[in-house]
Design a protein that fits this description.
Layout: E1 2-6, H1 11-19, H2 24-32, H3 57-69, E2 73-77, H4 82-97, E3 101-105, H5 109-112, H6 118-128, E4 132-136, H7 143-151, E5 155-159, E6 173-175, H8 191-208, H9 224-233, H10 240-254, H11 260-269, H12 278-295, H13 299-306, H14 310-342, E7 353-356, H15 365-376, E8 380-385, E9 390-396, H16 403-413, E10 418-423, E11 427-433, H17 437-451, E12 459-463, H18 474-481, E13 494-506, E14 510-517, E15 520-526, E16 536-548, E17 551-563
Parallel strand pairs: 1-12, 2-3, 2-4, 4-5, 5-6, 7-8, 15-17
Antiparallel strand pairs: 8-9, 9-11, 10-11, 13-14, 13-16, 14-15, 16-17
Helix pairs in contact: 1-2, 3-8, 4-8, 4-9, 4-13, 6-7, 8-9, 9-10, 9-12, 11-12, 11-13, 11-14, 12-13, 12-14, 13-14, 14-15, 16-17
């Protein structure tokens, strides 16, 4: 069941925004997303929250500045997704700009699993001999790994954004906006954002020590293309601070001021950097980087981002593109198998879905969970076999069901079920013994029954209501495209009643339409939908500028439609 609804908004806030110079339609759109004042729309880098608000960041800056002065060897231990790869690249590039001796290592997810494990510490010590380990996009749950590093005489600086467990690792310093007692207003920094903030604080400390001044200091803003890519790809909420980081990164991309690897990924994806959008980062570049960590080795993705050789970057980007195509094929097969498995049960009878297949690929289960969640609108965890009789799960959730908290509740109610887990509200990972799957599924379903109402299991297409006739235009579309939309700051979707003039199925997968309202006709397309519409329909749509033979025309991208 899918319902079309219209967002409510404060007319007072919308009017305040309009009077400050915001376009009247954008004013109500912003008000519907909780904005109350014009300063929340700032995109200037000077409007970023100051680093000093992050707990322990000054201590991290002092420690790292001392380490650089003493020529200590640092090794970054990265996570194997796009956020981890960009955070690693930002850390490597930024620390080297500031004079550090730094290398990196990224765990192979199939051999070592996630995070700073004791095994990764042993590998890092053996291969890199560091004085200091810096974690990026991981580490907040690595109690045993940090203890092993200390046992070996290696200090650990944890930079992470994941939610902590009941205990914190005994690291030299931890920078994480979500750790206890951290008053940083933005709890939604991605791992790459946390690393960028650490670099800003470190540069300030080194400037304080007289190593350079404001004119001669390294220009860390050159890293913002990488910060934007990791932030969007990790699907963190685009709050005001993250929107500044993303806007600044997109600005650099559109101006051609991006790293060789980012430019190569645009080219491999067939996208134009001069028109870079959050959509490109989340659905074109991000998946190509993520594919390396899913099927191969994320070191390949990191190498793409840290090389300054355009030829090498292009060669790696092409390899990543090939891996991504392979990932799509594996994913399609797994999704078909999942739907066959689910034929024996009606997922709509349950609040949650937990599903396992012995032939599934660990690297792709998260994407399959996301697809099943979208199809059935239930919190979904898909499992694949791991070593030693264990299975690994990757979960995706729906609004109103905090996935990591749900796993935490299961682990408290049945302590022996889950071996380990971690994550966020909308995505999480876990490891179980294979024989515990049925018991886990039942326990997870009980949490679903407790927390989710039937109404929450109905997909809602939220719209911004009717769009006034005057704004079905290319200039208005350009105005929308200039904003940073994404997770937690949804792109506008409008809704109105249309007459269906014509419709036909395109490539056996999509519905191509011509719609009419108020005497105006519009081309429209509904991707992934083939069922015909009646003569009149209520249509929820996004505006798009469709370019064909060098001529741009307004096109409606249908999100949902129902008889009217």
């Amino acid at each position: 069941m899918i319902r079309i609804t219209t967002r409510t908004y404060s007319h007072h806030d919308a009017e305040r925004l309009r009077l400050s110079g915001v376009h009247p339609v954008l004013a109500r759109i912003f008000a519907a997303r909780g904005l109350t004042a014009p300063d929340e729309l700032e995109r200037d880098i000077k409007s970023m929250l100051p680093p000093s608000g992050l707990l322990h960041i000054d201590a991290a800056a002092v420690y790292l500045a001392d380490a650089i002065a003493q020529n200590k060897k640092m090794v970054i231990v990265a996570d194997y997704d796009c956020d981890g790869a960009t955070a690693c690249a930002v850390g490597l590039r930024g620390l080297r700009m500031l004079g550090a001796q730094v290398d990196y290592i990224v765990p192979n997810r199939f051999e070592y699993g996630y995070g700073l494990t004791p095994e990764i510490v042993a590998l890092t010590a053996r291969e890199k001999s560091p004085d200091i380990i810096i974690t990026v996009d991981n580490g907040i749950a690595s109690i045993d790994g940090v203890a092993e590093a200390k046992r070996r005489g290696i200090e650990v600086v944890v930079t992470d954004h994941h939610l902590p467990g009941d205990a914190l690792p005994d690291a030299r310093v931890i920078v994480n906006p979500n750790q206890p007692h951290c008053g940083f207003p933005s709890k939604h920094l991605a791992g790459v954002g946390v690393m960028f903030y650490v670099l800003l604080a470190l540069r300030t400390e080194m400037r304080r020590r007289g190593l350079f001044d404001a004119d001669s200091q390294p220009k860390l803003q050159v890293l913002l293309d990488l910060v934007a890519l990791g932030t969007v790809a990790d699907v963190v909420k685009l709050d005001a601070n993250n929107r500044i980081l993303v806007a600044q990164g997109l600005k650099r991309m559109r101006a051609g001021q991006m790293h060789a690897g980012v430019a190569a990924l645009f080219r491999a994806a067939g996208r134009e950097a001069r028109r870079a959008s959050p959509f490109d980062l989340g659905f074109a570049l991000g998946p190509r980087l993520n594919a390396a960590g899913r099927l191969s080795d994320m070191a390949l993705g990191i190498e793409c981002l840290i090389t300054d050789d355009e030829g090498r970057a292009w060669a790696i980007a092409q390899e990543l593109d090939g891996i991504n195509r392979e990932r799509r094929e594996i994913e399609a097969g797994m999704q078909d198998e999942a739907l066959l498995l689910l034929e024996h049960i009606d997922p709509r009878d349950n609040r949650t879905i937990s599903i396992f297949d012995p032939g599934w690929h660990q690297g792709v289960i998260g994407i399959v969970a996301s697809r099943l969640k979208d199809k059935f609108y239930r919190p979904t965890i898909t499992f694949a076999p791991a070593d030693n009789g264990m299975i690994k799960g990757s979960g995706r959730s729906i609004p109103g069901f905090h996935l990591r908290d749900a796993l935490d509740l299961v682990s408290k109610q049945a302590p022996a079920l889950i071996d380990k887990f971690g994550g966020h509200a909308m995505a999480a990972g876990l490891t179980l013994r294979a024989e515990a799957l049925d018991a886990f599924s039942a326990a997870f379903e009980r949490v679903g029954q407790q927390w989710l109402t039937q109404n929450q299991l109905e997909r809602v297409v939220e719209t911004d209501g009717v769009l006034e006739d005057a704004f079905y235009t290319l200039p208005f579309i350009a105005l929308l495209e200039d904003e940073v939309w994404g997770q937690g700051f949804a792109a506008p979707v409008f809704c109105d009643r249309f007459r269906v003039i014509s419709q036909r199925v395109l490539k056996e997968k999509h519905l191509k339409l011509q719609l009419e309202r108020a005497g105006q006709r519009f081309d429209a397309i509904w991707f992934g939908h083939t069922d015909a519409l009646p003569d009149f329909a209520k249509v929820a749509f996004r505006l798009d500028a469709n370019e064909y033979n060098g001529v741009a025309r307004v096109q409606l991208m249908v999100e949902h439609a129902e008889p009217d």
